[in-house]
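so my prof wants the structure for this chain in the tokens format not the other one, which i didnt know existed until like an hour ago. anyway here's the sequence
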Amino acid sequence: MQHPFQCIASLRTAQGEQDGYLVTACGPRLVVLKVATSEVVCEWSAEETPVEPESKQDDSEERPAKKQKTSNTSPENDTPVAGKRQKSNKAPPKASNIIKLTVSPSQAHIVAVTDDKSIRVFSFDPSSKTLTELSRRCMPKRPCAIQVLPDNATLICGDKFGDVYSLPLLPSSEPEVNTPQPEVTPTAEQFKPSATPLTVHSRRNLAALTQQQKQKNFTPRKDTLSAFSNTLLLGHVSMLTDMLYTTHQSAGESKPRNYVLTADRDEHIRISRGPPQTHVIEGYCLGHTAFINKICRVGTSNLLVSGGGDSWLGVWDWLNFSLKQKFDLLSSVQKIAPEETQVAVSGIWSIGDGESAGVVVTCEKIKALFVISRTALESGSGEGVQTIPLSHCPLDVVVTDDAILVSTDARAEGEKRVICGKLGESGWEECSEKELEAANAYKGPERLITDKEMDAFLYNVANLRKRGPLEEGAAEEAEADGGAEED
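here's what i got, hopefully its the right format
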């Protein structure tokens, strides 16, 4: 089984249009391919970097004694045998998969997020065909969205805990890999449980309380943020799902204003001012009744498209916080998969600009692309949807000036993992396969992974959906919030 490319990005060098590169993430490996010659230029792997363990036991502390079972199999009668060490049943740490990938506006740096919560910055040298890791910074929570600002010096990152941070793209002028600082033993008081035998009655809870009373201080949390420069910009009380930094210049203004748009699992889209005034909330776009997974600005217009667990896409005038349309997406999905009754939007990408602008939408485990024009978004008409069937489920999309590249979940040997096409007058036209031969023929080291593990890694958007009474309560809360009405 070949590993699909879970993330892809386009890279242009200073030499011009002829030197286009495709950056792909294949499990823990970062692979750079030259499109014109269809060759693998270089690659980097997280398997070759040391994995930092989550916690270490102080060697000065006494190791726990091994328990030896007596003839009675009851766990209460287990007696420890001093001086013997327990065998560890933990499997060796696996290499960290790449979960997010982006390129700086200057095309000089590649930023990748691995599932060990690390943000890694790379530089690519086309002349020497080398990919160099310049920095690695470990965040307290797993990042869910990253973006390099137009100044090419600042990186903003949103994490699953609801926080958005700003940090320099490169921590110093000298390329070096940051490692977490060692833990410092705190001077906190000895841990004492608040419960007592008078307040705990069940046998199991009494046993747990006894273990807590015998326990030493908890291992202190690592202050990973103290290892590098960072600024907390804003925070949500819910799980953050997407983030977008954008600018807008109104008529009569001398310079554009900056904004940070964030979306969360609790159906909120927040419009905040850009740094350094991100604490100022301009307003909210309210109206969704299920989780929001993706937000996307349509070109440079005032339209914002959002999607997630609802059967429709939200089309917003984000500057005025008003919902213009609820664009029906489920009907288009059911033309490809009639058995589907719910939608889980996995990606939204802007295509074109001006009146010809639109969006490309993908849904989790749906083998199709949905291309929707700006006119259709504003009118709510389903006639403006162009459905492009695919052989496999799309994982990531890159929109260039003249083509659309799609990474698909093709796991069988010999199947195309990346396809390229153009939107012509006659519809979707696939590009020449020759330019993508190297990408589709790439094998890399063999990894032992089952289809079930692969599905769990690639498909997790639907897990954001609230179940049972919580989902019904979310719908009632959205109505109480007074979401904007359709025009």
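also thought this was worth mentioning. The mean pLDDT is 84.
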